Amino acid sequence: MGMQCRICGKKPVTGNQITRRGKAKYLGGVGRKVTGISKRRFKPNLQRIQVELDGKVTRIRVCVACIRSGRVKRPQKAKPFQSVKV
After folding, report:
1. CATH 3.30.950.10 fits 13-69, yes or no
2. Most CB atoms closer than 10 Å: which of 6, 12, 15, 79?
3. How far apart are CA 38 and CA 48, in angstroms?
4. Structural contact between residues 58 and 50, judged by C-beta atoms closer than 8 angstroms
């Protein structure tokens, strides 16, 4: 699945880009005028990170909101040059 968060399902949404000209009234102008409206897409901020799912470490695409909120469990990194205790 492209461009979609595997945790929350966030995906691109459509909207408008509004182009304006003129000076705002509170700055002494006659007001801002809309000169053009074009379609655009708002894309989620996805990152490919390693995640621990069901005891396995896999790479998935997750939005930054899920990473920051702690909805994703990151794998424990092993320290380099350490002998494994049995």
Report:
1. no
2. 6
3. 30
4. yes
